[in-house]
Amino acid sequence: MSLEAQVTEALSPGGRLAMRWPGYEQRDAQLALAGDLARTIARGGVLLAEAPTGIGKSVAYLLPAVLHARATGERVLIATATRSLQDQLVERDLPALLTALGESMPFACLKGKQNYVCPRALEMASGEGAEEEEVIEDLRAWAAADDVGDLDRFPAPDAESFRRVRARVATDPSSCNGATCRRARECFWARARRRASEVKLVVVNHALLARAAEADGMLPDPDVLIVDEAHRLEGVLSAQLERSVSRHRIEELFRLMGALRGGRRAGGLLSRARTVALPLLESGVRREGLHGDLERLAARIEEARADFEALFSRLVLPAEGAAGLYGRRARHRSMEDLLGRDLQPLEVALEHASVFADALLRASTAVMAAEAGAVGEELASELELVSARWRQLGDDLTQLAGAEDRAWVYWRSQSREAKQAELRGAPVWVGEHARRLVLARPRAVVLTSATLASDGDFGWVAERLGLADGLLPHEAVSHPSPFELARQMRCLVYDGEGDEVAIVTDVVSALARETGRNILVLLTAHERMRRVRRDLAARLPGDVPLAAQDVDGPAGLLAERFRGTRGGVLLGVQSLWEGVDFPGEALEVLVVAKLPFSVPDDPLVEARGERLRELGRDPFRHDAVPEAVVRFRQGVGRLIRRGDDRGVLVVCDPRLMNARYRKPFLAALPNTPELHRDAQKLALDAARFLGRPAARPLVEDPS
To answer: Starting at the edge strand that comes first in sequence, how are the strands of the sheet with 108-109 ordered?
Structure first.
C-alpha cells in the first residue's frame, strides 16, 4: 500500500485514528494536506504547503512522517519554529498519534546546546542571594535524577531567579566542544545528540537547523525534512548567518581570561593556567615559555582594552538629529567609508586579537604537556576554545570593516541608549544559503505554514528561500480555512485624525469601554507601543488590565496571563504578531495599528531594494508588499482559532482601503472592511457584532 493510501486509511471515518483517538474529528482539508505531504515524502522533491489555522497541520505532517520512517528506515527531521512547539510534539502529539496507530517507535527531541544543563557549570555555579542559591540547589537535585537535562523542563520554584541563573548553568555553545570535553559521559547535550543519531524521527527547531547548516555533524543528515512555520525560516537563517563585533563581545573574552573592567581580576584562564600547569612543568624552555606567555598576556590586556576602546570610539554614530525608532544605523561600503584613511586603530586591534589567539593556543599545548590529569586536559581545552574565539573575532572584524563581499550588506548600529556602536553584516539574500545548506540536501522537503503566499502567489517566499527560477524545482499547494470566517469575523478600518499613537489610543479606549472584551493591539515599533501604553494608562478605567510586551514582562508570560484575563488590553510587537494562540474569549478584538511594512532605512531592506532595481524590478511591488502581506496575514490569524470563535478586526490604517497596493491585503480578509471615521461609532459597531455587555464608565481624556 502506498504511503498516501496508508494516510488516507488512517484518517478516514473508520480508520485507526477515528477508532482510537478520543475526540478525533475528520477534517477534509487535513486529509488533503496529509495526502499532499505523503506524495512528496514518497517520491521526493520540494513542496510548499499553505495550511490555515484549524486544519490540524501537526497531525497532517506527523502521520506520514511516522508511517514513512517506520516502513523505510529513512531518517525524518521535523523542524518547528519554537522550543515550546517541540515540547508539544514530543510530549503530547507524537505519543498520542503512536498510541492511536497502535505503533511503537523511538523518536528524539534535540535543542541547541544552551538549553541543556552543563554538569561542570552547575557544579561551579554560585548564586547572588538566597533565592538564586536555592534555585541552584534545586537544579543540582533535579539534574542528578533527570535523564535529559533540558532546562525548559526544570520545574523552577522561582521563575525570575531561574531566569537569572539559567545562562550560568547552561552549556555554552561557543565554549563547549564535545570532542575535547572531559565530561562527555555526563554531558546532557552529548547524550541528546547520541539519542538523535540513533533514531529515525527527530524533532528540532529552526534555530538549531540553521546553526547546524554550517556545522557538519551537529545534526544527523535527514532523508526527509519537514519545516513547520516555514515563513519564519528565512529570518532565522539570516540571523544565524549575520556577523557582529561589539564591545560586549570583546569584554566577554577579557572576562574569560580573568580581567574585568577597572583592572579587577576574577580568576579566569590565565590564573588557572599558572596554578595548574606551571608547578608541574620542570624548569626549562617549556616552563619559561608558558610563564612568559601568561605574563605577557596579562600585561597586554589593559593596553588591548584601551586600543579596542579607541577603535570603537571611531565608530560612534553622529548624534545630530533624533535617533530613529530602532536607534541610529549607518551603512558602509568600504573600509575607507567606515574609518577614513587612518586604519591604524583597526590594525592595532587586529594585532591584539592575533596575539591573544596565538599565545592562548601555545598555552593550551603547554598545559597538556604538564600532564595535570583531567583538570589540566579540561583547562587546555578551554584555552584552545578561547583562542579560537579570539581568532574568529579577528576574522569577523576584518570582514565587517572591509565590507568587500558585494553579496553582503554592512552597517553600524547604535541603540538609543548605547554610547558605542557595533559592526554588523549579513547576506543580502539568504536564498542561496537556504538552498545549499538546508533545502537541497534531503531527498524530500516539505515547507508548511498558515501563511506562505501573497494573494495566492508563492513567488515571494520561493525567491526568499532560493527556490525560484528553477534553482530548486518545487510544487506549491494551498488549502482553504475550515472555518466560516466571513460569518465569524467582522473587519473594520479606522481613518481618524492625529498621529499613530493618538489614533490607536482613541480606538482602543473606545473598544475597551464598549465591548468589555479582550483586546490585542499589534504595533510595529517598541517606541510607539510604549507611548500608547502611557496614554492608555491615563484613559482606561482602573479595572481594565493593561500590559505591554517587554515593558510589563516577556511576551510568553504576558500571553499566558492574557488568556486568563477578561476585558484586558495587551500591546505587542514582533513576536505577538505570530505564534501565539488566543482561542475563544481569550481574544475577541484585534487591533492592527499599521500595515506591517519593513522600515525603509533598514540596511537589509535598502540593499535588497538596490539589487532588485539593478535587475529592473520594483522593490516595493516585488518585495516590500508581499512581505508585509504575509506579516499581516500572520497578525490577522491571531483572531479566529476555533470553529466557534467570533472576533472583530480593527485596522487603524486607511491605506488598507485606498492605497494602490491594497488588493493583496484585502484578499487576506474574509469580507470587505467597513470604514469608520468616528472611534465611538466603530466601538459600538464592534460591540453589536460581539453582543454588547454593560459599558464601562468613561475616563476623560487628560489631554
So the answer is: 108-109, 201-205, 76-80, 224-227, 444-449, 45-50, 475-478
